[in-house]
């Protein structure tokens, strides 16, 4: 007969082996399930022009949407775009509501603890936007004022960490620009590209303040995936590199941004 201690050791070994097999299966599951379904579900906010926004037909279009479509094409699957508020977008990924996030997400050490990243697929710097006649002339003047940020993004965290700002969070840029013009906020803090594109279209009179590298710098934006999916990560990385090499990326960037932002 087996001793009680030996039985415990066998049971523990069985559990450990099952966990290892489960982990190994999970590593291949995401790519395999995407290939089996012939579909990859990609999340973005849908409120971040020119990266993702609804057109007149209520379709989600923009730089991130086009990048998603091109990635899916190279992976041999169709793409389904899912819109969700940015502040809960990682939680939705971890809950398996979608397979990836293509939402102009800054790669940060904190986020890398929760998800893996493909890319960076483009780079952008922090910008402070004020009305043309604003008394705010430099980063030093950005204190004891109200700033608008996108809820949950890297600039939201940066603004709150300064400790001397009143931070108002928004779901998208259009509302921020309206409130800036109406005087409900004194400045907007966010990535440079969408602001410059938006005001070019609206003709809104603004002034741009670029922080020094120590407070802004150029940041890499990544495509977020659940951890322990090396095959999916490798597949998407190769698709991205192929797009960069064959000119597809540049065409998408020129269409939506007007310049190559890689």
UniProtKB/TrEMBL annotation:
Domain Ionotropic glutamate receptor C-terminal stretches: 39-259
Q: One MF term from GO for this chain?
A: ligand-gated monoatomic ion channel activity
Instruction: Please provide, in alphabetical order, the Gene Ontology terms of the cellular component aspect for this entry.
Output: membrane
Coiled-coil intervals in this record?
Answer: none
Check the UniProt entry and state the signal peptide residues, or none.
1-28
Q: Which UniProt keywords apply?
A: Signal
Record domain Solute-binding protein family 3/N-terminal: where: 39-260
Return the similarity comment.
Belongs to the bacterial solute-binding protein 3 family.
The record's PANTHER family line, in alphabetical order, gives: AMINO-ACID-BINDING PROTEIN YXEM-RELATED, MEMBRANE-BOUND LYTIC MUREIN TRANSGLYCOSYLASE F
What name is this protein filed under? Transporter substrate-binding domain-containing protein
Organism, as annotated: Pseudomonas vancouverensis
């Amino acid at each position: 007969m087996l001793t009680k201690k030996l039985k415990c050791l066998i049971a523990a070994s069985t559990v450990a082996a099952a966990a290892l097999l489960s982990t190994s299966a999970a590593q291949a599951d995401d790519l395999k399930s995407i290939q089996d379904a012939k579909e990859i579900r990609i999340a973005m906010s849908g409120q971040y022009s020119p990266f993702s926004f609804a057109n007149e037909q209520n379709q989600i279009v923009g730089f991130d949407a086009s990048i998603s479509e091109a990635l899916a094409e190279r992976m041999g699957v169709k793409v389904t775009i899912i819109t969700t508020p940015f502040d809960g977008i990682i939680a939705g990924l971890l809950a398996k509501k979608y397979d990836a996030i293509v939402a102009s997400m800054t790669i940060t050490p904190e986020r890398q603890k929760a998800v893996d990243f493909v890319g960076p697929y483009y780079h952008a710097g922090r910008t402070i936007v004020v009305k043309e006649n604003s008394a705010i002339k430099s980063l030093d003047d950005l204190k004891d004022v109200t700033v608008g940020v996108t809820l949950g993004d890297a600039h939201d965290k940066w603004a709150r960490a300064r400790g001397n700002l009143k931070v108002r969070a928004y779901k998208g840029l259009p509302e921020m620009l309206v409130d800036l013009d109406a005087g409900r906020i004194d400045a907007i803090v966010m990535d440079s590209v969408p602001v410059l594109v938006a005001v070019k279209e609206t003709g809104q009179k603004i002034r741009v303040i670029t922080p020094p590298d120590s407070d802004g710098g150029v940041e890499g934006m990544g495509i977020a995936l659940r951890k322990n999916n090396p095959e999916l990560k490798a597949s998407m990385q190769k698709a991205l590199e192929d797009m960069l090499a064959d000119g597809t990326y540049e065409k998408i960037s020129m269409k939506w941004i007007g310049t190559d932002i890689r």
